[in-house]
Design a protein that fits this description.
Helix content is 30%, strand content 21%. The protein contains six helices and six strands. The longest helix has 17 residues.
């Protein structure tokens, strides 16, 4: 993301002060939206706009988008579906009441089976321009919120006298036998090949099987879910309310 500022007259621009005031009043926005296809939460553009709109109106700051460049590709899914993939370079001009402005240039990506790929790309670009410029926090627990209990340094180990017998460490319990109702190693290999071919990441697949089947590893997937999982991998992206519903990777923002 690149930025530049333009003042109406030397030292008279107020846009940066107004944006700083908006940043001061903005609150945390959590990952309240859910990608049902790939099983992860994300922070949607609707939540960002609903929260920031009254603040921008209060401080008389408007946003003027300008598409600087675009790239379009036609893609075909594994099942033969048709997708339009668009990448836009968008410059957002943040302008105050006195005419002073700053610009933020970002890239947005969108994919759709209909006519909304560009819409999604612009919405994603706006979301990242706002969240990164204003440093919008997540509504999540910070690691510094907890303090571990007081502790003391671990003392050096002193071996027992030779006359004292050293306890024998018991042998570890035998490994549990693999349940008979889970997929085989050959089926796991097929799944791995399919999701790689479909462009899915390991993290997305693990999140999906945990959310839908309650297991953390592919060797725990029930046999009767094999066909259902293959159908999910082959299913093309569809139009969703928010651009992140069609993303292929997890989104930290």
């Amino acid at each position: 993301m690149t930025t530049e500022s333009i003042a109406v007259r030397d030292g008279a621009g107020t846009v940066q002060q107004e944006l700083a005031a908006i940043m001061l009043e903005a609150k945390a926005i959590g990952k309240s939206s859910r990608n049902q296809q790939q099983g992860f939460n994300f922070r949607g553009i609707d939540a960002v706009m609903n929260h920031l709109h009254p603040l921008f109106a209060k401080h008389s700051v408007i946003i003027l988008p300008e598409v600087l460049a675009e790239r379009t590709e036609e893609r075909t899914t594994k099942s033969g579906g048709h997708l339009i993939y668009r990448v836009l370079t968008v410059r957002f001009n943040f302008t105050a009441a006195d005419g002073s402005s700053v610009c933020s240039t970002v890239i947005g990506e969108g994919m759709d089976s209909g006519d909304k790929a560009a819409n999604k790309a612009m919405a994603v670009a706006l979301k990242y321009a706002l969240t990164q410029m204003l440093l919008l926090p997540y509504d999540e627990k910070d690691p510094d919120a907890d303090t571990p209990p007081d502790s003391v340094p671990k003392r050096d180990y002193t071996p027992p006298p030779a006359s004292v017998a050293t306890p024998v460490t018991p042998a570890p319990p035998p490994a549990k036998a693999k349940p008979a109702n889970v997929i085989s190693a050959k089926q796991r290999g097929l799944l791995f090949h399919k999701w790689r071919e479909a462009g899915l990441t390991d993290e997305v697949v693990r999140a999906h099987i945990f959310a839908n089947y309650g297991v953390k590893h592919t060797d725990e997937i029930p046999k009767d879910k094999m066909n259902e999982l293959l159908a999910w991998i082959d299913k093309p992206a569809v139009d969703e309310p928010d651009p992140d519903e069609g993303r292929k990777d997890g989104d930290p923002f």
